[in-house]
Amino acid sequence: MDPNQFQSQPGPGIGRQRAWPVPKIALIALSVAFCAIVLGISIALAVDPTIQSYIAVWTAPQAGAALIWTIADLITTIGSRGIHPGAHVSIHLLLWMGFAVGLGLTADILSFAVVFAGFDDRDTYAEYYEYYYGQGVEHGHVYYSESYIRMMEALVAFLALLIIVHFSLFVRACAETARCRKVHNAPIAVDIPLKPLGTSP
Q: Distances in Å between the alpha carbon of 13 and those of 17, 76, 113, 174, 196?
């Protein structure tokens, strides 16, 4: 080893990777597909003149935000170095919690619809029966129809899947953030030429 030269290994880089790993690509693809389905069902329930459901109020915002975030992540990854994983931690935390709230509210309405649709006695839920069935029976329309319940069941299922997907992305972002912090705090060695002792400057 040359005593006049201090040899060192280069410090690890702290830049974020441009390429998305395969697991993240799979999770993002699932998120996009599930969000599109949730938006489609929510909008269909809202625009149906016989239903005019307000389910979209607590399902569409989360699905739309997830799609916008994915597009922004893709654009920044292609154009620069991608979004810092710390931002992903915050966004995916809010998303999976938002989907959980939407799931709870939707499941509550679905449970009532399933129970209510099973009763034929107007006196059981008189105040609700008149509202949902009062005009519908004569005109051949039933608010809590079979198709309505099936669409609600599909909505609950895909909301549950979105919780799993974005919770997984949240955990992955937490691990990536910890890795970036570890790399950032690691000492970086620098090559410093040394002169032998006793030599003139």
A: 10, 19, 56, 19, 32
Summarize pLDDT for 124-136 with one digit per residue, the tens: 444 444 544 544 4
Amino acid making up residue 179? R
Task: Give the pTM.
Answer: 0.72
Contacts of 125 (CB under 8 A, 6+ apart): 116, 119
Q: Which two tokens stand for residue 83?
A: 């979004």
Measure the CA–CA gap between 71 and 61, rounded to whole angstroms.
15
Record the tokens describing residue 41, joined without a space: 């069902």
Q: What is the pLDDT of residues 80-136, one digit of tens each?
A: 667 888 889 999 999 999 999 999 999 999 888 887 766 554 444 444 445 445 444
Helices marked H in the chain: 22-47, 60-79, 85-117, 126-133, 146-185
Instruction: Give the three-class secondary structure for 84.
Output: coil
Neighbour tally for 165: CB within 10 Å = 25
| Residue found by looking up tokens 């992305």 in the block | 169
